[in-house]
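lol so apparently i was supposed to do this last week
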Amino acid sequence: MALPTSQALLKDKQIASPTYAIELPSSKPIIFMNPNAQTRHFPLNKSTFAVRSNKALLSIGKAFKFGPSDIGFEGQSRSYGRGNSLGGLVVKAAATAEKPRKNYPGEAKGFVEEMRFVAMKLHTRDVAKEGKKEPDAQPIGKWEPTIEGYLKFLVDSKVVYDTLEDVVQKATYPAYAEFRNTGLERSEKLAKDLEWFRQQGHIIPEPSSPGLSYSKHLQELSEKDPPAFLCHFYNVYFAHTAGGRMIGRKVAEKILDGRELEFYKWEEDLTTLLNRVREKINLVAEGWSREEKNHCLEETEKSFDYSGKLLRLIIS
Ligand code: HEM
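anyway here it is w/ protoporphyrin IX containing FE bound
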Protein backbone atom coordinates (compact mmCIF):
# COMPACT_ATOMS: atom_id res chain seq x y z
CA MET A 1 0.00 0.00 0.00
CA ALA A 2 1.35 3.42 -0.93
CA LEU A 3 2.22 5.71 1.92
CA PRO A 4 0.20 8.95 2.03
CA THR A 5 2.01 11.93 0.61
CA SER A 6 2.70 14.95 2.80
CA GLN A 7 0.07 16.90 0.80
CA ALA A 8 -2.50 14.25 1.50
CA LEU A 9 -1.64 14.35 5.20
CA LEU A 10 -1.93 18.11 5.18
CA LYS A 11 -5.29 17.90 3.46
CA ASP A 12 -6.51 15.45 6.08
CA LYS A 13 -5.36 17.82 8.76
CA GLN A 14 -7.25 20.70 7.23
CA ILE A 15 -10.39 18.68 7.09
CA ALA A 16 -9.87 17.59 10.68
CA SER A 17 -9.42 21.20 11.80
CA PRO A 18 -12.78 22.95 11.77
CA THR A 19 -12.88 26.44 10.34
CA TYR A 20 -15.23 29.24 11.23
CA ALA A 21 -17.06 31.19 8.61
CA ILE A 22 -18.35 34.71 8.99
CA GLU A 23 -21.16 35.17 6.54
CA LEU A 24 -21.41 38.66 5.17
CA PRO A 25 -24.96 39.52 4.10
CA SER A 26 -24.28 39.48 0.38
CA SER A 27 -20.72 38.38 -0.20
CA LYS A 28 -18.64 35.25 0.18
CA PRO A 29 -17.83 34.03 3.65
CA ILE A 30 -14.50 35.06 5.19
CA ILE A 31 -12.79 32.06 6.64
CA PHE A 32 -11.16 32.42 10.02
CA MET A 33 -8.95 29.74 11.34
CA ASN A 34 -10.23 27.87 14.35
CA PRO A 35 -8.18 29.17 17.28
CA ASN A 36 -7.85 25.59 18.48
CA ALA A 37 -6.35 24.57 15.20
CA GLN A 38 -3.55 27.11 15.67
CA THR A 39 -2.58 25.60 18.93
CA ARG A 40 -2.31 21.93 18.24
CA HIS A 41 1.36 21.65 19.13
CA PHE A 42 2.07 21.52 22.81
CA PRO A 43 4.40 22.46 24.33
CA LEU A 44 4.92 25.41 22.07
CA ASN A 45 7.92 25.67 19.89
CA LYS A 46 9.58 29.05 19.63
CA SER A 47 8.22 29.96 16.23
CA THR A 48 4.58 29.08 16.92
CA PHE A 49 4.68 31.10 20.10
CA ALA A 50 6.03 34.04 18.12
CA VAL A 51 3.30 33.75 15.54
CA ARG A 52 0.54 33.37 18.04
CA SER A 53 1.64 36.34 20.10
CA ASN A 54 1.73 38.50 17.03
CA LYS A 55 -0.49 41.51 17.60
CA ALA A 56 -1.46 41.71 13.96
CA LEU A 57 -2.94 38.25 14.17
CA LEU A 58 -4.73 38.95 17.40
CA SER A 59 -6.10 42.19 16.08
CA ILE A 60 -8.03 40.25 13.46
CA GLY A 61 -10.30 39.05 16.21
CA LYS A 62 -10.26 42.36 18.01
CA ALA A 63 -11.31 44.37 14.99
CA PHE A 64 -14.54 42.46 15.02
CA LYS A 65 -14.80 42.69 18.76
CA PHE A 66 -14.59 39.06 19.54
CA GLY A 67 -12.15 36.93 21.39
CA PRO A 68 -11.57 33.19 21.16
CA SER A 69 -14.72 32.27 23.04
CA ASP A 70 -16.81 34.45 20.78
CA ILE A 71 -15.61 32.90 17.59
CA GLY A 72 -16.98 29.58 18.53
CA PHE A 73 -14.39 28.08 20.82
CA GLU A 74 -17.20 25.84 21.92
CA GLY A 75 -18.68 25.41 18.48
CA GLN A 76 -21.68 27.58 19.25
CA SER A 77 -23.03 30.11 16.79
CA ARG A 78 -23.84 33.68 17.64
CA SER A 79 -25.68 36.35 15.81
CA TYR A 80 -25.18 40.05 16.22
CA GLY A 81 -28.09 42.38 15.73
CA ARG A 82 -28.09 45.59 13.73
CA GLY A 83 -26.36 48.64 15.08
CA ASN A 84 -23.46 46.79 16.70
CA SER A 85 -19.91 46.66 15.43
CA LEU A 86 -20.62 43.70 13.19
CA GLY A 87 -23.58 45.33 11.51
CA GLY A 88 -25.76 42.27 11.45
CA LEU A 89 -23.08 39.73 10.61
CA VAL A 90 -23.71 36.21 11.64
CA VAL A 91 -20.80 34.28 13.06
CA LYS A 92 -21.29 30.60 12.52
CA ALA A 93 -19.30 27.69 13.76
CA ALA A 94 -18.98 25.22 10.95
CA ALA A 95 -17.58 22.70 13.39
CA THR A 96 -19.71 20.02 14.91
CA ALA A 97 -21.92 21.54 17.57
CA GLU A 98 -20.69 20.95 21.10
CA LYS A 99 -22.37 22.05 24.29
CA PRO A 100 -21.25 25.52 25.32
CA ARG A 101 -19.04 25.18 28.36
CA LYS A 102 -19.14 27.36 31.43
CA ASN A 103 -16.57 30.09 31.76
CA TYR A 104 -13.58 29.43 33.97
CA PRO A 105 -13.63 31.61 37.09
CA GLY A 106 -12.44 35.07 36.06
CA GLU A 107 -12.38 34.17 32.35
CA ALA A 108 -14.84 36.87 31.32
CA LYS A 109 -12.43 39.54 32.59
CA GLY A 110 -9.37 38.11 30.90
CA PHE A 111 -6.76 35.49 31.64
CA VAL A 112 -5.00 37.45 34.39
CA GLU A 113 -8.21 37.34 36.38
CA GLU A 114 -8.16 33.56 36.05
CA MET A 115 -4.58 33.53 37.33
CA ARG A 116 -5.56 35.78 40.22
CA PHE A 117 -8.47 33.55 41.14
CA VAL A 118 -6.22 30.49 41.37
CA ALA A 119 -3.56 32.42 43.30
CA MET A 120 -5.99 33.84 45.83
CA LYS A 121 -7.31 30.38 46.67
CA LEU A 122 -3.77 29.30 47.56
CA HIS A 123 -3.52 31.95 50.28
CA THR A 124 -4.20 31.12 53.87
CA ARG A 125 -7.56 32.36 55.13
CA ASP A 126 -5.98 34.63 57.69
CA VAL A 127 -4.04 36.72 55.13
CA ALA A 128 -6.60 37.04 52.34
CA LYS A 129 -10.36 36.70 52.46
CA GLU A 130 -10.44 34.61 49.27
CA GLY A 131 -7.82 32.25 50.74
CA LYS A 132 -8.77 28.61 51.18
CA LYS A 133 -5.73 27.26 53.03
CA GLU A 134 -5.48 26.72 56.76
CA PRO A 135 -3.58 29.46 58.53
CA ASP A 136 0.15 28.78 59.00
CA ALA A 137 1.34 27.60 62.39
CA GLN A 138 3.40 30.79 62.43
CA PRO A 139 1.24 33.62 61.05
CA ILE A 140 3.06 36.69 59.71
CA GLY A 141 1.78 38.86 62.52
CA LYS A 142 3.86 36.71 64.85
CA TRP A 143 6.99 36.62 62.70
CA GLU A 144 10.20 37.59 64.48
CA PRO A 145 12.39 38.70 61.59
CA THR A 146 16.14 39.17 61.91
CA ILE A 147 18.40 41.37 59.80
CA GLU A 148 20.43 38.29 58.82
CA GLY A 149 17.31 36.43 57.70
CA TYR A 150 15.92 39.45 55.89
CA LEU A 151 19.24 39.93 54.06
CA LYS A 152 19.11 36.31 52.92
CA PHE A 153 15.59 36.95 51.62
CA LEU A 154 16.65 40.10 49.76
CA VAL A 155 19.72 38.42 48.24
CA ASP A 156 17.72 35.39 47.09
CA SER A 157 14.90 37.61 45.80
CA LYS A 158 17.48 39.46 43.74
CA VAL A 159 18.61 36.17 42.18
CA VAL A 160 14.99 35.51 41.16
CA TYR A 161 14.36 39.01 39.78
CA ASP A 162 17.74 38.93 37.97
CA THR A 163 16.61 35.74 36.26
CA LEU A 164 13.15 37.02 35.29
CA GLU A 165 14.55 40.28 34.00
CA ASP A 166 17.33 38.54 32.11
CA VAL A 167 14.85 36.17 30.45
CA VAL A 168 12.70 39.01 29.12
CA GLN A 169 15.78 40.90 27.94
CA LYS A 170 17.06 37.88 26.01
CA ALA A 171 13.55 37.03 24.82
CA THR A 172 14.24 33.50 23.56
CA TYR A 173 10.54 33.59 22.71
CA PRO A 174 9.72 36.92 21.04
CA ALA A 175 6.63 37.42 23.22
CA TYR A 176 8.85 37.76 26.30
CA ALA A 177 10.05 41.06 24.88
CA GLU A 178 6.58 42.44 25.67
CA PHE A 179 7.57 42.30 29.33
CA ARG A 180 10.68 44.47 29.12
CA ASN A 181 10.66 47.81 30.92
CA THR A 182 7.32 47.30 32.59
CA GLY A 183 8.34 49.51 35.49
CA LEU A 184 7.84 46.56 37.85
CA GLU A 185 11.51 45.47 37.63
CA ARG A 186 13.07 44.94 41.06
CA SER A 187 16.64 43.89 40.38
CA GLU A 188 18.26 47.35 40.44
CA LYS A 189 16.17 48.39 43.43
CA LEU A 190 17.38 45.36 45.37
CA ALA A 191 20.98 46.13 44.39
CA LYS A 192 20.55 49.61 45.92
CA ASP A 193 19.03 48.22 49.11
CA LEU A 194 21.81 45.67 49.51
CA GLU A 195 24.39 48.40 49.00
CA TRP A 196 22.70 50.43 51.73
CA PHE A 197 22.86 47.49 54.14
CA ARG A 198 26.54 47.00 53.26
CA GLN A 199 27.22 50.64 54.04
CA GLN A 200 25.55 50.13 57.41
CA GLY A 201 28.20 47.52 58.19
CA HIS A 202 26.17 44.39 57.45
CA ILE A 203 27.68 41.44 55.65
CA ILE A 204 25.76 40.56 52.52
CA PRO A 205 25.34 36.77 52.34
CA GLU A 206 25.88 34.63 49.26
CA PRO A 207 22.69 33.47 47.50
CA SER A 208 21.25 30.33 49.06
CA SER A 209 19.25 27.33 47.92
CA PRO A 210 15.70 28.83 47.80
CA GLY A 211 16.75 31.60 45.38
CA LEU A 212 19.14 29.45 43.37
CA SER A 213 16.72 26.59 42.86
CA TYR A 214 13.90 28.96 41.93
CA SER A 215 16.18 30.69 39.45
CA LYS A 216 17.09 27.34 37.88
CA HIS A 217 13.43 26.37 37.57
CA LEU A 218 12.58 29.70 35.93
CA GLN A 219 15.48 29.41 33.54
CA GLU A 220 14.37 25.95 32.46
CA LEU A 221 10.72 26.94 32.03
CA SER A 222 11.66 30.02 30.07
CA GLU A 223 13.38 27.80 27.49
CA LYS A 224 10.71 25.17 27.06
CA ASP A 225 7.43 26.21 28.60
CA PRO A 226 6.32 29.86 28.11
CA PRO A 227 2.85 29.48 29.71
CA ALA A 228 4.38 28.08 32.90
CA PHE A 229 7.10 30.72 32.84
CA LEU A 230 4.53 33.52 32.56
CA CYS A 231 2.65 32.07 35.53
CA HIS A 232 5.72 32.65 37.68
CA PHE A 233 6.34 36.03 36.09
CA TYR A 234 2.82 37.13 37.05
CA ASN A 235 2.86 35.69 40.55
CA VAL A 236 6.29 36.97 41.52
CA TYR A 237 5.69 40.57 40.41
CA PHE A 238 2.08 40.84 41.50
CA ALA A 239 2.52 39.07 44.83
CA HIS A 240 5.30 41.48 45.69
CA THR A 241 3.01 44.46 45.13
CA ALA A 242 0.33 42.95 47.40
CA GLY A 243 1.38 40.61 50.23
CA GLY A 244 5.05 41.36 49.63
CA ARG A 245 4.56 45.03 50.44
CA MET A 246 2.54 44.18 53.50
CA ILE A 247 5.31 41.90 54.75
CA GLY A 248 7.91 44.57 53.94
CA ARG A 249 6.08 47.10 56.09
CA LYS A 250 5.82 44.73 59.03
CA VAL A 251 9.50 43.77 58.82
CA ALA A 252 10.54 47.42 58.53
CA GLU A 253 8.56 48.30 61.65
CA LYS A 254 10.19 45.50 63.60
CA ILE A 255 13.83 45.70 62.54
CA LEU A 256 14.48 48.79 60.36
CA ASP A 257 12.91 51.61 62.34
CA GLY A 258 10.18 51.82 59.71
CA ARG A 259 12.64 52.58 56.87
CA GLU A 260 11.04 51.88 53.48
CA LEU A 261 13.41 50.05 51.15
CA GLU A 262 13.73 50.73 47.40
CA PHE A 263 12.36 47.21 46.86
CA TYR A 264 8.93 48.60 47.83
CA LYS A 265 9.01 51.76 45.71
CA TRP A 266 7.94 52.18 42.09
CA GLU A 267 8.68 55.13 39.81
CA GLU A 268 5.15 55.41 38.44
CA ASP A 269 1.67 54.88 39.76
CA LEU A 270 1.62 51.19 40.66
CA THR A 271 -1.96 50.57 39.56
CA THR A 272 -1.14 51.92 36.10
CA LEU A 273 1.96 49.73 35.85
CA LEU A 274 0.05 46.63 36.96
CA ASN A 275 -2.78 47.30 34.56
CA ARG A 276 -0.35 47.61 31.67
CA VAL A 277 1.22 44.26 32.50
CA ARG A 278 -2.23 42.70 32.97
CA GLU A 279 -3.16 43.79 29.46
CA LYS A 280 0.03 42.36 28.01
CA ILE A 281 -0.40 39.00 29.70
CA ASN A 282 -4.01 38.90 28.57
CA LEU A 283 -2.95 39.63 25.02
CA VAL A 284 -0.28 36.94 24.96
CA ALA A 285 -2.67 34.43 26.54
CA GLU A 286 -5.25 35.13 23.85
CA GLY A 287 -3.00 33.11 21.59
CA TRP A 288 -3.02 30.08 23.90
CA SER A 289 -5.27 27.07 23.70
CA ARG A 290 -7.42 26.21 26.73
CA GLU A 291 -4.96 23.40 27.42
CA GLU A 292 -2.05 25.84 27.56
CA LYS A 293 -4.01 28.22 29.78
CA ASN A 294 -4.80 25.41 32.20
CA HIS A 295 -1.19 24.36 32.17
CA CYS A 296 -0.23 27.92 33.09
CA LEU A 297 -2.77 27.99 35.94
CA GLU A 298 -1.53 24.66 37.26
CA GLU A 299 1.92 26.11 37.72
CA THR A 300 0.60 28.56 40.34
CA GLU A 301 1.08 26.09 43.14
CA LYS A 302 4.79 25.74 42.33
CA SER A 303 5.07 29.49 42.29
CA PHE A 304 3.66 29.55 45.84
CA ASP A 305 6.03 26.79 46.95
CA TYR A 306 9.12 28.53 45.66
CA SER A 307 8.09 31.99 46.87
CA GLY A 308 7.01 30.58 50.23
CA LYS A 309 10.51 29.15 50.73
CA LEU A 310 12.00 32.55 49.90
CA LEU A 311 9.69 34.32 52.36
CA ARG A 312 10.57 31.92 55.13
CA LEU A 313 14.20 33.06 54.87
CA ILE A 314 13.04 36.25 56.62
CA ILE A 315 12.58 34.35 59.85
CA SER A 316 15.51 31.96 59.38
C1 HEM B 1 2.53 35.22 53.71
C2 HEM B 1 2.50 35.47 52.45
C3 HEM B 1 1.43 36.24 51.72
C4 HEM B 1 0.56 37.17 52.14
C5 HEM B 1 0.41 37.74 53.51
C6 HEM B 1 -0.23 37.57 51.01
C7 HEM B 1 -1.24 38.48 51.02
C8 HEM B 1 -1.92 38.95 49.94
C9 HEM B 1 -2.95 39.94 49.97
C10 HEM B 1 -3.47 40.65 51.21
C11 HEM B 1 -3.36 40.13 48.71
C12 HEM B 1 -4.39 41.15 48.21
C13 HEM B 1 -5.73 40.52 48.18
C14 HEM B 1 -6.74 41.38 47.48
O1 HEM B 1 -6.46 41.97 46.42
O2 HEM B 1 -7.85 41.42 48.01
C15 HEM B 1 -2.58 39.26 47.88
C16 HEM B 1 -2.72 39.19 46.53
C17 HEM B 1 -1.98 38.36 45.76
N1 HEM B 1 -1.02 37.45 46.16
FE1 HEM B 1 -0.44 37.14 48.05
N2 HEM B 1 0.20 36.89 49.92
C18 HEM B 1 1.22 36.09 50.32
C19 HEM B 1 1.93 35.22 49.58
C20 HEM B 1 1.77 35.10 48.23
C21 HEM B 1 2.55 34.22 47.41
C22 HEM B 1 3.64 33.28 47.92
C23 HEM B 1 2.12 34.40 46.14
C24 HEM B 1 2.58 33.73 44.90
C25 HEM B 1 3.82 33.53 44.62
C26 HEM B 1 1.07 35.38 46.15
C27 HEM B 1 0.38 35.83 45.05
C28 HEM B 1 -0.56 36.82 45.07
C29 HEM B 1 -1.22 37.33 43.90
C30 HEM B 1 -0.98 36.92 42.47
C31 HEM B 1 -2.11 38.30 44.33
C32 HEM B 1 -3.06 39.13 43.46
C33 HEM B 1 -2.42 40.48 43.19
C34 HEM B 1 -3.28 41.41 42.37
O3 HEM B 1 -4.37 41.05 41.96
O4 HEM B 1 -2.82 42.52 42.13
N3 HEM B 1 0.89 35.79 47.44
N4 HEM B 1 -1.71 38.54 48.67
